[in-house]
Specification:
The protein is of the alpha+beta class. The protein has 4 helices and 6 strands; from the N terminus they run ααβββαβββα. The chain has a 6-stranded antiparallel β-sheet with strand order 3-2-1-6-5-4, with helices on both faces. Helix 1 runs antiparallel to helix 2 (about 35-50) and helix 1 runs parallel beside helix 4. It starts with 12 loop residues before the first helix and ends in a 7-residue tail after the last helix. The structure holds methionine sulfoxide (SME).
Length: about 160
């Protein structure tokens, strides 16, 4: 039987990410499959923190187009062009983007009206190519801080083992 995902909302963020990193490492220890990694990582984060939407947009046309990949939560939009919205900005600039208030982000793509803050983290494979972005939408403003940037960047470092 698979382990139950703990509710980490009341746990200090550093401890929470430590637990999630351990679970991710155990669950994916025999895998080098990017889709399995995306599905497992999205599920861990989504249920541990109770977000609105947690998942991956995959690079299907490098430098041009992202398409939705494994995710948990409400319906996400299917495709996002590089440079558009928070996901497209993070992909085009290959950097983590934190948006404390989505209503103040010009060009934010609202897939769910309840979304209030967001973080998007670029994901690279073994060759250092951008293969996806991890996108998390929260119903609470200002949900993401330094500990989230550090924790999420460590979680997506798992993808450095994928082809
Ligand atoms: N808000 C994102 C779009 C994706 S979803 O909300 C699932 C953006 O602006 O890139």
């Amino acid at each position: 039987m698979e382990p139950v995902i703990p509710d980490l909302r009341a746990v200090p963020r550093e401890d929470a990410y430590r637990q999630l990193l351990e679970m991710q490492a155990l669950l994916l220890e025999d895998s080098t499959d990017a889709i399995a990694g995306m599905a497992t990582t999205a599920t861990l984060l989504h249920h541990a923190f109770g977000y609105l939407w947690t998942g991956f947009y995959r690079v299907v046309e490098p430098g041009r187009l992202l398409r939705v990949g494994p995710y948990q939560g409400s319906l996400g939009c299917q495709e996002i062009a590089f440079g558009r919205g928070v996901c497209g900005t993070a992909a085009a600039e290959r950097r983590t983007v934190v948006v404390p208030d989505v209503h103040a982000f010009p060009g934010h793509i609202a897939c769910d009206a309840r979304s209030a803050s967001e973080i998007v983290v670029p994901v690279q494979n073994a060759r250092g190519e951008l293969i996806a972005v991890l996108d998390i939408d929260s119903p609470v403003q200002d949900s993401f801080g330094e500990a989230d940037v550090a924790g999420l960047e460590r979680l997506v470092a798992w993808f450095a083992r994928t082809a």
